[in-house]
Task: inverse folding
């Protein structure tokens, strides 16, 4: 029997680590926004590094005869993982582009939820190396879904406050777009959890 190539899991771990670095940097950025510019540049670098890992995974997938999980699952997983960091970087870039001076107060809450979800993503991706971890992986996927619901609540409350209090329509549009990008990053964490859950149910 030809052995299945297991190095894909190392690439998943590598990508998850980049995402975690990006999430932590983004949280640090919004907590200390007065020193944000170098962190925005670093986030772009991390996003580029994640892209390289993603393309390396695709390339390896096309050159490997037997993959440890189905090719469509590998493709869906790394695509969704890469999108998390894309959304984080897009949020930070918009803050710079829109010349935001003072952050809306809820953004730290949203960034904290995002970081919790990212750490769970890293956990489930690493745990996939051993399908005996199926129960723990599924439980962590449920926790990510719960965090996504928490993010939705923060988003709704934030939008309600902004529409009630913000008198400048341009500022309202700016903040709505920034918050939507962060919320999308949390949503994509849930997408990753759904992909991983499907893989576990298929192979465990």
Result:
């Amino acid at each position: 029997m030809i052995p299945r190539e297991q190095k894909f899991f190392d690439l998943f771990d590598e990508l998850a680590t980049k995402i975690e670095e990006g999430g932590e940097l983004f949280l640090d950025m919004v907590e200390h926004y007065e020193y944000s510019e170098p962190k925005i540049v670093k986030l772009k670098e991390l996003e580029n590094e994640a892209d390289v890992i993603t393309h390396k995974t695709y390339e390896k997938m096309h050159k490997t005869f037997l993959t440890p999980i189905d090719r469509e699952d590998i493709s869906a997983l790394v695509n969704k993982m890469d999108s998390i960091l894309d959304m984080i970087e897009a949020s930070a870039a918009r803050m710079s582009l829109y010349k935001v001076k003072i952050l809306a107060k809820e953004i730290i809450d949203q960034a904290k939820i995002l970081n919790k979800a990212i750490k769970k993503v890293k956990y489930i991706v690493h745990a996939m190396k051993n399908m005996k971890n199926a129960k723990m992986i599924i439980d962590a996927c449920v926790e990510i879904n719960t965090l996504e619901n928490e993010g939705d609540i923060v988003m709704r409350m934030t939008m309600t406050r902004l529409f009630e209090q913000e008198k400048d329509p341009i500022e309202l549009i700016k903040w709505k777009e920034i918050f939507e990008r962060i919320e999308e990053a949390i949503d994509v964490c849930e997408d990753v959890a759904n992909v991983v859950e499907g893989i576990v149910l298929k192979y465990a």
Notes: Residues 169-203 form the longest helix (35 residues).
